[in-house]
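Our preliminary data section would be incomplete without showing what the modeling component actually yields. Below, a chain of 201 amino acids is followed by its predicted structure, encoded as tokens that our downstream tools consume directly.
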Amino acid sequence: MVSKRAALYVRVSTDKQTVESQVRELTAIAQRRGWEVVATYSDAGISGAKGRDQRPGLDTMLKDASRGRFEVVMAWAIDRLGRSLIDLLGTIQTLEAGKVDVFIEQQSLDTTSPMGKLLFQITGAFAEFERHMISQRVAVGIKQARAKGVKFGRPRTDPKTEERIRKALAKGDKGILKIARELGVGSGTVQRIKAEIIVGA
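Predicted structure:
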């Protein structure tokens, strides 16, 4: 086995669990493969359903991967990196962009080998197909709903309220936020009407 600089990523969902057993097992695997563990990233008590912005260990690991600090990331199981296929692929693609391989023990995913890279590419193709199919189903659903008279987007403010907004804007003694608050509408509505007045002036 070629020597590689390896990073461990470990995660547990609750504070009652510990990451030590994952670290111990992955370190032993790295030693058997002749890999040097140069960093360990941990998210303890954080659900895998949370995004990168809520998982500081994952975020730091991905940033260090882009800096070339290591050549392979090791995790105990797929659900340690992400709960959904699309989320997982996004993480692995970020690593791949930094030329960092992935080793996941429980699912025998190892992109350091040609077979592992092929498996990942096939999985990625299925995920892309799934995204495409979801997009198509949504588009068809919207088209069918529109054919039945369903309207999409925010409902337009009633004419009486719009006229009150115009009058309040014309006085010029109140800001957009105050007018919106007093008339019970969103500030975006007031901004839209103000823009219409300016264009029509």
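Residues 159-200 form one domain. The chain has eight helices and five strands. Preliminary results of this kind motivate Aim 1 of the renewal.
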